Each structure stands twice: as structure tokens, then as C-alpha cells.
Amino acid sequence: MTAQYQLHGDIAVITLNNPPVNGLGLATRQGIADGLAQANAEPAARAIVITGAGKAFSGGADIKEFGSPKAMQEPNLLSVIAAIEKSSKPVVAAIHSVVMGGGLELALGCHYRVAAPGTSVALPEVKLGLLPGAGGTQRLPRALGVEPALNMIVSGEPIKSEMLAMLPGQKLFDKMAASAETLLDEAMNYARSVADVRPMPLVRDLPCRHPQGDAYFQFARNMVKGMSKNFPAPGKCVDAVQAATKGKFEAGMTTERELFINLMWTPESKALRHIFMAERAASKIPDVPADTPLRAINSVAVIGAGTMGGGISMNFLNAGIPVVMLEMKQDALDRGVATIRKNYESQVKKGKLKQDKYDQRMSLLSTTLSYDALTNADMVIEAVFEEIGVKEAVFKELDRVMKPGAILASNTSTLNVDAIADFTKRPQDVVGLHFFSPANVMRLLEVVRGAKTAKDVMATVMVIAKKIKKTAVVSGVCDGFIGNRMIEQYGRQGGFLLDEGCTPAQVDKAIEKFGFAMGPFRMGDLAGNDIGWAIRKRRSVERADMKYSKTADLLCEKGRFGQKTGAGWYDYVAGKRDAIPNAEVVQMIQDYRKAQGITPRKISDEEIVQRLVYSLVNEAARILEDGIASRASDIDMVYLMGYGFPIYRGGPMNYADQVGLFNVVQAMKRFAQNPLDDAKFWEPAPLLARLAAEGKTFNS
Ligand code: 3HC
Ligand code: NAI
């Protein structure tokens, strides 16, 4: 049973019991409705208390049910709330831990609310591209006041119960309990004290207006528009709350319902709901049980205090975990520490970090030139030069000094993690932790699972990733792992587009209009074009048959490595990030075309976007087939968190699903006919071809 009924003397208690967060799925809704009916029919019961078992009152509607017939099946949430309002005996919500979305709407439907301190209160539907659909936009403004309610609804951010209880004139909480432990007793006593009060109060009967009327809503709408340009939901939240201030309660409810249903079908909401589930799925590894014992990680060593080593260290310092950094020379250590210090100082200056926190973080950092100082560390992360010989020397030293059971991680971006593991006598303890630059900012962490990596090492690093606020995605060992293996194909398409008639600015603009944070050429300039150049030189030996445009090599031969040299595909003014198109580069591309005998053609933005995005999708399908990624949604997370793929499109796989895999395959077949492109690459990956033929999707 996902909702239980119990009679405690003269009070009936209905306890939601649908772990993990008492989502209001069909069975739970039915349980509440049954409990209400039973309580109303029970002569001994004078009043009713609704509460939640475990770690929440309720996290809201069951997100997993969305889009399925169950979501709408009676009793739906609106009917349950209507039944509460019609109850002949007063209903008291006993709220603790988490009260969100439909959970808060349910509580707002009750006659009274008693809350424990420390409860997270939110209407977070906007984060799923929705608005509260069970009266939240109509009742919260009545209970809390229009402005605070609208702020909560538009931001979706949780606020602690004790803060809300302090708002003047608030009617959200009738009583604050002393603690979560005493909540139920206090709520039952409260229920007894109001058992005979008639008429019973209802939030819907409270007045709702804003002194500035429509002018306030116009102001709010303008603010919201500026902050959420690609998402329709925040603006609709304003509309719904405005409706609460006009006319009758029922009319406002009708407006809310219409807006809610329309939002439910938008691609933006589908994308955000997909991301919610994808993020949680990514933390689970199919063959690593949830109860795998973890290794304790209380201190960390970082080898190399360069660009990555510094950023990686900051993640652990931020989480309160001591870090010791090792370098070859004292001046490299000094530079590394100075960079970390500068980073934190700028946060203090901007008011983002308090001075005492800064002091505390810096006090957790120590440095050394000797491997013998690492013997106490529970985990070490290597971030030295990307050369296999250097990695070999480092891992042999680590194998010598690290205590048994310590986790040995490498931040390599291109080298074989299995080869690195085999430099040690404990390959089961070795794992890849591929951070993205800047490592203290970027949320993505690719966890590279070697052939011999132990399951408890995998389980431990996934938990540590969460602790340092990263979104971890597991990748198998292959060239480029998930993200860079795909980006290589995307980069190749960018090159072919130049060969065929585009300028770098045209390509970048088209894909940025699609929603990418940055087009491939601006991104190349930011990362450094020389990195790709070095990789291509290696490839020309290993994969000589791989066709690619030579324009990027020509650019590097001119020393145009990107922002760091002040010139790349674009020009840059020192200290600024603006990319200024360069006539010489455009001429260089034209000369190259001429030398190849290519007559340029006009290429549409649509073709640019399709070729770039579908190149990601096709390589991703191969990655899935090879077992490098375990689910399509993991690939979406990599691209959303690490590569600037537009959030509102839900990642490349979700986007392909929405376009329809049949249509994606048809487009690939067209691209394969282009003699200047790579017909072999555009052969749809077998998995993609099969799903398209069967009318299926990647994420189903
Ligand atoms: N429905 C179903 N499952 C839910 C859920 C929900 N509303 N909220 C969370 N879960 C599940 C998660 O999927 C996860 O499952 P898993 O263990 O199988 O992966 C589990 O609960 C734990 O979630 P978290 O890892 O996020 O746990 P935290 O303790 O960090 O956070 C939380 C708990 C604050 C409740 C957070 O999960 C959260 O913010 N959930 C979303 C709440 C939300 O958006 N509610 C609105 C739903 S829409 C709605 O109510 C529509 C209505 O207006 C009609
Ligand atoms: P970097 O050149 O900025 O820093 C490397 C540091 O390692 C230098 O300070 C150097 O003195 C130190 N070092 C070299 N050999 C050492 C040794 N034997 N013992 C101790 N210290 C040693 O390089 P960066 O960019 O930080 O890269 C480090 C690693 O991270 C590489 O494997 C790279 O592929 C990887 N990586 C880099 C990313 C980036 O964007 N820069 C992104 C993801 C991974």
C-alpha cells in the first residue's frame, strides 16, 4: 500500500508511503481518497491528519507517470484535493522534510497545515518546463501573497518552512512544530483543537490581489522574458498567477489547467523531464549494485598543479576534503597555488564566497615535491602532461607509495586507461576521471571504467562525484571516450562545410541559433586549435583512411592557434572574448577550395545544423552499440553538461528522437550522396538503422 490509514484515538492519520519521495502516483492518490472516505465514515474520527513516511511529505506528482494514461486516471490530483476540501471533518497536513509540487498543492487543499522546521518548500514545476497544475498558481498566492508566491513559482527554488512562516500575514502554515520528531503528535493535537470549528477554512476562499494590479504583472512578465528566452513555462506562470487575481477561483483554475496541459506537450518540457530522469539514471551503473560497499575517501592527492590539477583540487577543497598537490618543481607548485588563490579571491571580491570559507578552503590545501608525502591519501588524481611515458613514470611511483586500497585516477583525455592501469600492480584500483576545463566550473565528469576497474572503485567515484557537485557519466575505454569521440565527427563536418562554401562565422551562427553555446570554430579557438592538430597528426599514421578538411591544418601552420595566440579562425582583442571574422582566413579557405577544384555552393542553415547534429547522433549510436555508454540518456548528459548542447533540446539523442529516427536516417542517406563528404561515415550505425526501421527511439 502506498498510503496507509490508521486511527489514533479520535484522529485518523493517512500516511503517504511511496518511496523514495512519496510521489503522488495513481496508487497513492487512490490510497488518499480511500483513507479520506474511511475517515469520514468512521464515527470515532473527529479530524484527519495527512503526513508522509520517510524522507518527504511529498515530492509532488509522480514524474515517472507523466505522459502515461495513469497520470490522468481518476482519482487525479485535482479530484483528491476536491475530496479533501469537501471532507466533513477537518484535514490537517503534517508537513516535513520536502513538500514540493503536487505535494504542496495537496497541502494547500487541506484545511490546516502544520510544518516542521527545515522543510524544503517549493513549486518546482517550472524546472520541468511546466507550471503547478493542481491549483498551486491559484492557492499559493492566496496563502502567501502574490509577490512571494510568484517568485517561488517562476524560480521553482525551495525555501525553508521557517523562512516562509516569518512572512507577514502568511496563511501557508497555521503552526510550526518544534521539530520533525514531534510533528505528528503536534499535528494531531492541533487537529483535536480545531475538530469542532465550523465553517472550516479553505485557502480558495482567501482574497488574492496585488496593489499595483496588471502593471505589476507586466513588470514581472518583462523580467521573466529576459531571463528565460528559450523556455515558455516561466511566462505562463505569470499568466496563471495573474488569473488568480481576477475573477472567481474556479475561472483561475480553468486557466491554470489549460496552460498546464499545453506546456506538458511542449518539446522544452519533454526535454527538461528527460534531463531530470537522465541525470538520476546516469548515477547508476547497471552491473554495480546500489549497496556495493564504498571505499572511504577523506583525503585526496593531485599530481600536477597545471590548468587541470588546480581546478580539480578546488573541487575537493570546496567539498571540505583536504588536498595535497605534487609537482616536479617548487615554482610549478607556487604557480598552481597562486592560481587557486586568485580564483577564490575573485569569488570573494564578487561576494560569491565569504572570507572565512576562503580561509577554510585554503587551509585544506598542502603541497609537496615528494611522493612519500602521499601515503595517507585515500585517492590520487593524476593531471600531468599528456604523454604516455610521463604517465608511466607517475603511475609506477604511485604504485610504490600509495596505501593498499587507495584509488588511482588519471585525468587523461586521450590515452588508454587500461594501458595506464597496467603500469601498476593494482589495475583494479585504477580508473579514469576525465574532468572538463575549467575543472572547477564544468559540471561534467566522464568516469572511464577500465577493463579491470573494481566495482567498488566505480561505486565510490560515483558517490564522490556527487559530493563535488559533478554530473558523472560512465564511459568505457575508447579513443576520445564518449564526448570527444563524438566531437571529432562534428569537427570533421565543420571542416567539410568550409570546403563546400561556408565561412566559419556562417557555421557558428547557424548552430548557435539552434542553441549551442558556441559553434565549432569559436570552440576550437577557445580550446586551442593546436590540440586538434596534434591529434590529426597522430591519426594520419593510425587512421590514414579518415577523410578530413585540411583547412584547420593550414590555419595552424599560420600559427593561428586561437584565443591564446590572439588569432585563430577569428581575431581576438587582448582581454576580450569577442570573435572578429578575419578576411585572411576566409581567403585561405577560398584558396584551398580552388586548389581542390571545388566550386563553392550556398549552404542553408538547416543543412549546417543537420550535418553537425546528426554527425553526433550517428557516432553516439556506435558508442552505444560498442557498449562504451550504457544508455542513450548518458550521452545526452555528456553533451548537455560538457559541450554546450541546448538544454531545451534535451541532448542529441533526445533531439533525434523528437525529430524521428526515420527522418534522421533519410537525411544521412542524402548526405552520403555528397562527393565532398564522407559516405562511409554517413552509413547509419546499425543500431540507428534498426530503431528507425522499427519506428522506435533511443530513449524509450
Ligand atoms: N516523482 C517520482 N520520483 C521522484 C520525484 C517525483 N516527483 N522526485 C524525486 N523522485 C525520485 C528520483 O527519480 C530519485 O529516484 P531514484 O532513486 O530511482 O533515482 C529519487 O526520487 C531521489 O531523488 P533525488 O536523487 O533527486 O533525491 P534528493 O534527496 O536529492 O532530492 C527531491 C529529493 C528534492 C524531492 C528532488 O528529487 C526533487 O526536486 N524532485 C523533483 C520534485 C518536482 O519537480 N516535483 C514536481 C513534480 S510536477 C508536479 O507536481 C505537477 C503538479 O503540479 C500537477
Ligand atoms: P598543464 O600543462 O597545464 O599541466 C600539467 C602539469 O603537470 C604541469 O604543471 C607540469 O609541471 C606537471 N607535471 C608534468 N610532469 C609531471 C610529473 N612527472 N610529476 C609531477 N608533475 C608533473 O596540462 P593540463 O592542461 O592541466 O593537462 C593535464 C592532463 O589533463 C593531461 O593529461 C590532459 O590531457 C588532461 N586534460 C586536459 C584538459 C584541458 O582542457 N586542458 C581537459 C581534460 C583533460
Secondary structure layout:
Layout: E1 3-8, E2 11-16, H1 26-41, E3 47-52, H2 69-72, H3 77-86, E4 91-95, E5 98-100, H4 102-109, E6 112-115, E7 120-122, H5 136-144, H6 146-155, E8 159-160, H7 161-165, E9 175-176, H8 183-194, H9 214-227, H10 233-244, H11 249-264, H12 267-282, E10 300-303, H13 307-318, E11 323-326, H14 330-349, H15 355-363, E12 365-368, E13 379-382, H16 388-401, E14 407-410, H17 417-421, E15 430-435, E16 444-448, H18 455-467, E17 471-475, H19 483-500, H20 504-514, H21 520-527, H22 529-542, H23 551-557, E18 570-571, E19 580-581, H24 583-596, H25 605-625, H26 632-642, H27 652-659, H28 661-672, H29 686-693
Parallel strand pairs: 2-3, 3-4, 4-6, 5-7, 6-9, 10-11, 10-13, 11-12, 13-14, 14-15, 16-17
Antiparallel strand pairs: 1-2, 7-8, 15-16, 18-19
The chain binds 3-hydroxybutanoyl-coenzyme A and 1,4-dihydronicotinamide adenine dinucleotide.
1,4-dihydronicotinamide adenine dinucleotide (NAI) binds next to helix 13, helix 16 and strand 15.
Structure description:
By secondary structure, the chain is of the alpha/beta class. It folds into 3 domains: 3-264, 2-enoyl-CoA Hydratase, Chain A, domain 1, CATH 3.90.226; 300-475, 3-Layer(aba) Sandwich (Rossmann fold), CATH 3.40.50.720; 483-693, N-(1-d-carboxylethyl)-l-norvaline Dehydrogenase, domain 2 (Orthogonal Bundle). It is 48% helix and 11% strand. The protein has 29 helices and 19 strands. The strands form 4 sheets. It has an 8-stranded mixed beta sheet, sandwiched between helices. Helix 13 links the parallel strand 10 and strand 11 (323-326). Helix 5 (136-144) packs across helix 6 (146-155), helix 9 (214-227) packs antiparallel against helix 10 and helix 12 (267-282) packs across helix 26. It is globular and about 90 Å long. The relative contact order is 0.06. The mean pLDDT is 96. It binds 3-hydroxybutanoyl-coenzyme A (3HC) and 1,4-dihydronicotinamide adenine dinucleotide. The site of 1,4-dihydronicotinamide adenine dinucleotide (NAI) has 25 residues, from helix 13, helix 16 and strand 15.
